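User: Fold both of these, please.

Assistant: Here is the first one.
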Amino acid sequence: MTTLRTPVEARAWLQRHGVTISEWARANGFKPAVVAALLAGRSQGNWGEAHQAAVALGLRSPPAEGEEHPLASALRAPSRVPAPAHATRSAS
């Protein structure tokens, strides 16, 4: 397991390489505001895009290899939402 960075260490890492928060965020597919909030300590990176960015920055550990995503079964299951009524009417 690698050692996790603190937000201060992650910000210093970017600065040592001359990379702005916005540049890093865009290059890695994240919103700059999300990354800035992580590095300023306003976000803990617990959910969603903030979590993904925190993992990419080394602020949080990635899930264990082979561990199933909590939504994996929901994503595999067929839709349980009935078709709209207008979609089932026959043309007259």
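And the second sequence with its predicted structure:
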Amino acid sequence: MAHYVTGAALTEATWQRSADPQAQTEARRHITANPAAYPTLNSSGHLDTARWSDDDLFESGLDLILAGTPRQDGE
């Protein structure tokens, strides 16, 4: 869980907040042109900003992590 939250914070700080739009476009183009090198990014839909807002993407990932985390007895 900590790695997910840390990764999301780093991504937001470096990618969404400080990268110029042209650099983001070029990065998306590179990633989608090389699906074998970036299979998770290509198949996840993470690059589809029309489909996922930053908040929706974070919450969806968090829901998946929590759904796969076993509950302790008594909770």
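The first helix runs from residue 2 to 16.
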